Amino acid sequence: MEGSGVGRVAVVKFGGNLRETLDRGLELIGGLDLRGGEVVIKPNICNSKNPYGMVLTDTGLIEEMIARLKPLAKEVTVVESDNIDGPAEKRLRDCGLMERLEKLDVEFVNLTREDDFEVHKVAGTEIQIPKKVLEADYFINMPKIKTCGPTLVTLSIKNLFGVLPTPKKSRLHGLLDEILPYLAKLIPHKLIVVDGMMAMEGNGPVIGTPRPLGLIVFGRNPVEVDSVITSLMGFNPDEVNHIVRAHRIGVGEMSLERIEVLGDDWKGIKPFERPYTLKASIKCLKSIGKLYLP
């Protein structure tokens, strides 16, 4: 649709000013298109620590995004769930995001504590999906550009795994290729803003190696955004099962020839180191120390 930004993905170089970068990226995909209603933001806050700035969605980027939303929305809420690293509230406090949200008078909702959810059967198992996410007027996905051992990449589709309220998500890891496409189709995205200012390569999604990229990627469709970024990282989207399956069930396009890619030139970026190579395993030793040593 003309002006809607559907089918557009914008790759924008971060020049040091978050406000200007956000304004440019949003303009390229057709603007916010927000008039009231409840906005729900799902960043990637998967750990308490953020060594080298490579693990978590940049808190400054989240803050700038909220600053644009508040004058236009009835309510803005940031959501996360508990995981193996512990309660979501602790992770947000440790990384500094909770303090920023409190100053902005923005509510945080721990989806693990929500008792209003739908039960869906996927891949032979039942999963709970919070209505807070399903019924949001304007759902914004704010992931990080990272490699990931089990899925090669963790971008907007993989970030949806964090909306599931169960803290013991490891029991679902063997079903990711079925659960993730299901979530991508079920959860209606209005906006995707991907933090690639400091990305991660190698043994992601937590103990990889920092990869300065200096990009922020904008779009509205998770398959299209993830296909562009996967290509940018030097991988073939056909290698990523959850992207392929989401495409096959009609979520979005995978072929870059059918996606309108706007913004700055990203061709020629050196390919990211794949997970679990010998080089990646040696390089991640510093990250392990940063994450797990006092």
Fold and architecture overview:
This protein has 294 residues and is of the alpha/beta class. The N terminus is likely disordered. The chain is built from eleven helices and twelve strands. The strands form two sheets. Strands 1, 2, 3, 4, 7, 8, 9, 10, 11 and 12 form a ten-stranded mixed β-sheet that branches. A two-stranded antiparallel sheet has the order 5-6. It is globular, with a radius of gyration of 18 Å.
Please give a quick description of this structure.
With 294 residues, the chain is α/β, with parallel strands linked by helices. The protein has helices spanning 18-28, 59-69, 88-95, 97-104, 131-134, 156-159, 176-186, 222-232, 241-248, 278-283, 285-292, and strands at residues 8-13, 38-43, 75-80, 107-110, 117-122, 125-130, 138-142, 144-148, 152-154, 189-201, 209-219, 260-263.
